[in-house]
Design a protein that fits this description.
The complex is a heterodimer of chains A (about 400) and B (about 180).
Chain A: H1 2-6, E1 19-24, E2 36-42, E3 45-52, H2 60-64, H3 69-77, H4 84-99, H5 105-133, H6 138-158, E4 167-168, E5 171-172, H7 180-203, H8 206-212, H9 220-225, H10 231-234, H11 242-245, H12 248-251, H13 287-314, E6 332-340, E7 343-351, E8 359-363, H14 365-370, H15 373-376, H16 384-392, H17 396-400
Antiparallel strand pairs in A: 1-2, 2-3, 4-5, 6-7, 7-8
Helix pairs in contact in A: 3-4, 4-5, 5-6, 5-13, 5-16, 6-7, 7-13, 13-16
Chain B: H1 4-14, E1 18-22, E2 29-32, H2 37-46, E3 54-63, H3 68-74, E4 79-87, E5 94-101, E6 114-116, H4 125-136, E7 139-141, E8 169-170, E9 173-174
Classes of the chains: A alpha+beta (about 400), B alpha/beta (about 180).
């Protein structure tokens, strides 16, 4: 036997009768849209995962080469349709960067209110859908109950419930209606205690911990190597948030706001609120930590919105008239990333001096976050694949653009 | 460290492989030759002062004007530009690298221009380069699996090229 193995010409053939290709999606409910995963399985163990994307490709970048920046805003809505306001904001900021346009203080605080409310709404869907992935239905209903109220507030501000086109280069399409701030504060007061319910349902639920703790470990080095950003990166313990570390044009929006980047430092998460303890099974960088970071960001966003409401009501200036529909763009190019609920969303705008961009590019956060799946799923159980993909919280509209 | 300082440092180290720059632009950029790209990227990532550990984005921009009247005023020769946006999570700075390529290799339409892959430096480049190949038609030499990512496998043409024309039909569906 040993002599045969020493001979390099003899190859030991292993007929792998157990190996099977399993096709998950594109209509699978836990793939968050139209994602197709091809799993190579050996019994219950997944040896290889290959994501197939592009089912929702709508040529947004090509369309952007034929429209003025303001006309392209509705197309940004349809990228990350669960956080359309954040997409609007990213695009508005990059156009303003190219035009070197400064917005008033009032518009700045309005944007903070809207962007952070959107973050809450988006993380609520992320949380609810993650519960669905793991086989529990009730957190989804709880999450949508509260999200509905945020959508009602957005509807009152801009008339739309999902694709807002509200934040535009120059400011916003309209000011917040009278009485909106009171309604918003009332919502926050009512919402904050409810977060405890979510923690009972999921974060500290024994079954949930068993399904997520220690699953899908992502080291900080691998997260950076694959370009993972947002809660996925912070769930691995990397202290990086564009709201604090980003470009000046973006961070000045959050100037003077008191907030701490949610991430584990020296074995501890921020302790400014009464958060549930980290279970001993959880390892930094697993699905549970990614989920936990999102839950903590919800609480933090509530704090930021409260501060923003206060500042907005005393701020001077106009809420910011949008730029002209056919505003001429200076020749040049600008790139900018913003911290969206799912990670760093970047927009790149190149202009040849006319009012229509020469080229637009959207750098999608979910696209990069998804690209790490095959590393996370290698060697896991089939039942853990939805848990891992769900913990990345992807939106296909943004991946395929 | 950004702009002029970084440029001087890279020029001193790589000489002619740094073929151009614009530090006055809104986002200062540095142009690298295709041959020196991987070497420069490796240096940018590993140097303790720079630590560009995050590749944000790879974009291909097609500079081509079909209308001869407009082309005379456009102010550029037809070419393809690859733009790499990189940043550092630890040092909190960012940089733009550009690589200029011909629109077609040896001016033969259909022959894709070539550039070495940077997947060995940042693994996120894998999917970004596949996307650029898919939509803009650039051949990344050494890429582990360069095939279409957003368009179907049997799609023809590169949609983000300026002279792209929609196919008349695709599997019995009318294109235009």
């Amino acid at each position: 036997m040993s002599t045969a193995l020493d001979d390099p010409r003899i190859v030991e053939f292993d007929v792998r009768t157990d190996e099977m290709l399993v096709n998950m999606g594109p209509q699978h409910p836990s793939t968050h849209g139209v994602l197709r995963l091809v799993l190579r399985t050996d019994g219950e163990i997944v040896s290889q995962v290959e994501p197939h994307i592009g089912y929702l490709h709508r040529c947004a970048e090509k369309i952007g080469e034929n429209l003025t920046p303001r006309q392209w805003i509705p197309y940004t809505d349809r990228m990350d349709y669960l956080a359309a306001m954040s997409m609007n904001l990213g695009w508005a900021l990059v156009v303003e960067k190219l035009l070197n346009h400064q917005i008033s203080d009032k518009a700045r605080h309005l944007r903070v209110i809207i962007a952070e409310m959107q973050r809450i709404a988006s993380h609520l869907v992320g949380m609810g859908a993650y519960g669905l992935d793991l086989g529990t239905f009730s957190p989804f209903l709880y999450a949508f109950r509260e999200r509905e109220r945020i959508l009602d507030l957005f509807e009152e501000a801009c008339g739309a419930r999902l694709t807002y086109s509200y934040l535009t280069p120059g400011g916003a399409t309209a000011d917040l209606p009278p009485g909106w701030l009171q309604k918003c504060s009332a919502f926050l007061d009512q919402f904050e205690p409810i977060i405890q319910e979510y923690h009972t349902l999921l974060t500290s639920n024994a079954i949930f911990i068993k399904r997520t703790a220690g699953i899908g470990l992502l080291s900080p080095e691998m997260a950076l190597d694959y370009g993972c950003t947002g809660p996925v990166l912070r769930g691995s313990g990397v202290d990086y948030d564009l709201r604090r570390d980003g470009e000046e044009r973006y961070t000045e929006m959050y100037d003077g706001y008191a907030f701490e980047v949610i991430c584990e430092r020296n074995g501890h998460y921020p302790k400014d609120h009464d958060y549930p303890p980290v279970p001993k099974e959880a390892i930094l960088g697993d699905c549970w930590h990614r989920f936990y970071v999102r839950m903590l960001e919800v609480v933090q966003s509530v704090d930021i919105v409260r501060q923003a409401i206060e500042r907005y009501s005393t701020a001077t200036g106009n809420w910011g008239e949008p730029i002209k529909l056919t505003q001429k763009l200076p020749k040049g190019e600008a790139y900018m990333e913003t911290e969206c609920p799912r990670g760093q969303m970047g927009f790149y705008l190149i202009s040849d001096g006319s009012s229509i961009p020469w080229r637009v590019r959207a750098r999608s956060s979910s696209f990069c976050n998804l690209s790490v799946t095959h590393e996370l799923c290698r060697g896991c159980l089939i039942a853990d694949v939805p848990a891992i993909v769900g913990s990345l919280d992807i939106v296909m509209g943004e991946i395929d653009r | 460290m950004a702009g002029q300082n970084l440029l001087d440092r890279l020029k001193a180290k790589f000489g002619t492989k740094i073929s151009g720059s614009n530090v006055q632009a809104i986002d200062p950029w540095i142009e690298v030759t295709p041959a020196g790209l991987v070497e420069v990227c490796q240096y940018l990532k590993t140097d303790p002062d720079l630590q560009f550990n995050l590749l944000n984005c790879i974009t291909a921009v097609d500079y081509f004007e079909a209308d001869p009247k407009k082309a005379a005023k456009a102010g550029f020769e037809p070419h393809l530009e690859l733009v790499y946006h990189v940043s550092s999570v630890t040092k909190k700075h960012s940089l733009v690298l550009k690589v200029m390529l011909p629109r077609w290799k040896n001016d033969q339409p259909g022959e894709l221009p070539e550039v070495p892959t940077v997947t060995g430096v940042w693994r996120t480049a894998d999917w970004h380069e596949r996307e650029v190949f898919d939509l803009s038609g650039v051949n990344f030499i050494g890429h582990p699996r360069l095939n279409r990512i957003l368009c179907p496998e049997d799609w023809e043409g590169y949609p983000l090229r300026k002279d792209y024309e929609m196919p008349l039909e695709y599997h019995g569906m009318r294109g235009r």
